[in-house]
Design a protein that fits this description.
158 residues; alpha/beta; Helix Hairpins; Chitinase A, domain 3; five-stranded mixed beta sheet; 3 helices; transcription
């Protein structure tokens, strides 16, 4: 079975969500179903049907998270030697050679990517261009607007 890379923080966030779903949401939904059953006729009982639908969604999310964690290869970059090279999990500060605009990205798994908080997927074009390069290197990234060159300023293990 193929393992997918995931940062330690990504795995911890999924584990916390899984714990919440199992220890908080499941009991609340079970209680809601029990209370709705006491209201009588289940055919026209909106509360019962809403609780059952929510139960289905929670159980599906639990299975999804368990599957993701089961297929994850958790990588804790803080424990890896600092070589100045870019690889999965590192946080890379880059500067646009033309505009001198600076930005930092953490390279994460597909499930963890969120550009709003500067986490980019390992399979994104910019991450693919950066991986394997070192501090001081200039990388060319193909963007919809053309090729953009970035200099790698710093590679951090956070």
């Amino acid at each position: 079975m193929m393992k997918y890379p995931m940062t330690k923080q990504g795995a911890e966030a999924l584990e916390a969500e899984l714990k919440h779903l199992k220890s908080v949401m499941r009991p609340q939904i079970t209680q809601a179903i029990a209370e709705a059953r006491e209201l009588g006729d289940l055919k026209e009982n909106a509360e019962y049907h809403a609780a059952r639908e929510q139960q289905g969604m929670v159980e599906a999310r639990i299975r999804d998270i368990e599957g993701r964690l089961g297929n994850a290869q958790v990588i804790d970059v803080a424990t890896l030697p600092r070589t100045g090279k870019v690889f999965f999990g590192t946080t890379v500060e880059i500067v646009n050679v033309d505009t001198e605009e600076s930005v930092s990205y953490q390279i994460v798994g597909d499930d963890e990517a969120d550009i709003k908080i500067n986490k980019i997927s390992v399979s994104s074009p910019i991450a693919r261009a950066l991986i394997g390069k070192e501090e001081g290197d200039i990388v060319a990234v193909k963007t919809p607007g053309g090729v953009v060159e970035y200099e790698i300023v710093e590679v951090a293990h956070k």
